[in-house]
Structures
1.
Amino acid sequence: MSTEEMYLQRHGLLFPKETHSTESLHFAQEFKFKDEDVVAVTYPKSGTVWMQEILPLVLNGGDLTPIQTIPNWDRVPWLEEKRLALVVDNLASPRALVSHFPYHLMPPSFHASKAKVIYVMRNPKDVLVSSYYFHQMASFLHDPGSFDEFMASFLEGKVLFGKWTDHVKSWKNTELGDRIMYITYEDMVQDLPAALRRMSDFLGRNLSEEVIQKIAEHCSFKAMQDNNMSNFKLVPKELLDSDKSPFLRKGIVGDWKNHFTSEQLPTFTSVLRKEMEKETFSLPWSLD
Ligand code: A3P
């Protein structure tokens, strides 16, 4: 299948047609955010599915029912995907969503509301590696070719949701004030209970230490691998083939070191550095 057949091109970005349509993007623009809604925003492969596990538990005090009974894509749907229109009326309150939209594509009602955002960022080198394997297992994404070829597409932004740097810049330069919280995938891997405490405080939940520990246990990489509502094993193999690479693949920090050659690293670093040079915020990782 050609790139044109696989992706919708809108707003200068690529959206996989399997999960997105003109109607779903329109639905997202018309979506009515409520003040109590929470949306976890990520560039793809930065911890989205992890947030689909975490948010319902933090919002409902650790009740396991949603993560044990509802597949993640319907439990915490993507704002921009086709499924939202089908499940929106069934969402528990307060509603939790995820989105890969850059900031400027958020709908008017989001800006008019007090809905909160948790923006999860991941080291772009690990994002690239994770995405490379995801492209191998997802039949609705283009064949990534060699790692070198895929890196070139990633750096040019010829991948779903465009350039990593544009995404991060858009969300780091908002006027959302205390409506947005930033966290990194690396923080979550390093100390999940601490990350959960921050999220719980940000969302105005006063979770006990016992509940925090319980949520951390159920959101561990291993627990999610074993949860059929979260490991994508319910998706037909024709769409997501776990034999090629599981969706919950490694769940570690620094896998890029096993993939980047000594030539690829400076190429990657210099492109990102140039694109970030005018920014006043600093990244939480060294690009080298
Ligand atoms: P890897 O491919 O590096 O393993 P997204 O959900 O945004 O598509 O991101 C997927 C990445 O998040 C995958 O990274 C996946 O393994 C990782 N991930 C998901 N749940 C996780 C968890 N509980 N702990 C650590 N990593 C997790």
2.
Amino acid sequence: MTQTLTITRPDDWHLHFRDGDILGETVPATARVFGRAIVMPNLTPPVTSVALANDYRDRILKAVPAGVDFQPLMTLYLTDNTTAGDIAAAAASETVFACKLYPAGATTNSDNGVTDPTGIYPVLEAMQEHDVPLLVHGEVTSADIDIFDREKAFIDRYLADIRTRFPALRIVFEHITTADAADFVLAHDSHTGATITPQHLMMNRNDLLVGGIRPHNYCLPVLKRREHQQKLRQVAVSGDPRFFLGTDSAPHAQGKKETACGCAGCYSARAALPLYATFFEEMDALDKLEGFTSFHGADFYRLPRHTDTVTLARETMTIEQQVMAGGEAFVPWMAGETIPWRLA
Ligand code: NCD
Ligand code: ZN
């Protein structure tokens, strides 16, 4: 008999749906499994107001398959021009759930991001006051800092000070990639959380660079050395409620990945839950999967845990070589690989 695993419906606390026709692929891929998702605002132009967030949310909801109950949790993109008034408006809205800090130039579509995080302290003050969570892409962008050191430098230069100045602000250190980031979260109280992606749990920089450049494993923050991966693996299965699921599923068309200057981002939405299950099984920690996927994030965000379930089957699944969306080809992360779990 096939082994099955039934868990409370999970949520994806960090992903990129993009916009336009591709929503017909990305939204169902997530909504089939995840009950809620925090939707990143790095469109072009970025989602900087409640009105833009509401319009984007409507387009997402149109792409939810009939009969599926799915809730997109919208975010605002912080810029140098965001005001405390924008935060009050976000807090008063029914739809905007959090704000995202992208240091300018740190990643895909971050040109309008914040040039100096210390310059937006009045906005962070307002976020603390209105209890709006701050989601952080934690990398500095200065050319003098090595790309592998950018996460640690962000902690030292900015995040430690933000944490101290705004002790009641809920901060999520998104897609953490280093032991330094894990240690930062561990050193603080329950107002600090972190998401961890499947690629940062299952891969390290060897998977990016050994034997040839692997553009489909290229994401930001970039994969780090094995010692960092080991620390992430350890905290993810530790049962610590400050660490939770965020796929950072971030599709880019095949031609934009397989090119001289490839885009950063891994498209993982379709296989995300089986991928996490595969990792937890590797760690002999399947009993900790549900906390990471379905409880810790909901508790951190003070949302109810889901009351329905999803079931995984221990049957092999081979990840598609290619997915067509909006007339373009996309190569999923881990394309062609066979993993031991699938959705039942
Ligand atoms: C994301 C994207 O493509 O939007 N890319 C990535 O490598 N993760 C942006 C981000 O989350 O940094
Ligand atoms: Zn992201």
